[in-house]
Amino acid sequence: MIFQILETFTLVSGLVYIFLQVRQNRWMWPIDVLCCFAAIVVFAHQSLWASMGLNIYYLVMGFAGWFSWKRDAKKTGENGIRIRQMSAMARIGSLLGFVASFVFLYWALKVTADPSPFADALVGASGIVGTVLLVRSYLENWYVWLFSDTLSLLLCFMQGLYFMAILYLVYTAMAVVGLLEWRRDGKYID
Known about the structure:
By secondary structure, this protein is mainly alpha-helical. The protein is built from seven helices and two strands. The chain has one domain. About 80% of the residues lie in helices and about 5% in strands.
């Protein structure tokens, strides 16, 4: 019963979070922290260790995102979507970070009771990279989220986490909306 309540809370707070993310509203970050806390408990209960660990990471990055976006808002004004141009070095670093994270997570998950180590490692590695790109306001974060959220949707559905699967379905759709809105309305900074 408690896990169903937490899963429902994660769904509702996650919907609020993604709406605010698309609008690049920095209040998304405290909502994210609450959502992640509930998701940590749900994923731990299902023994999805990488997803649980990823939500611990998201929780910590929620604080980093709050301060980063607050600083950017002071530099550029409150209104508008602020995005950064991703350099070639940042792209290479992101790819290397993804590969290193995937290899480590896959190895770690093989020695645990994780029911889907390959998929869980892919979700974990892409979530790590996607969050860094989001905190830095790179447009490319949306491409990573399209991949990660689609895979998370399938993983949650296969594990019987239907409310979480609905959340990731909405996240996937909103990643498309976010990409289009940031492309259309974004103003490059730096």
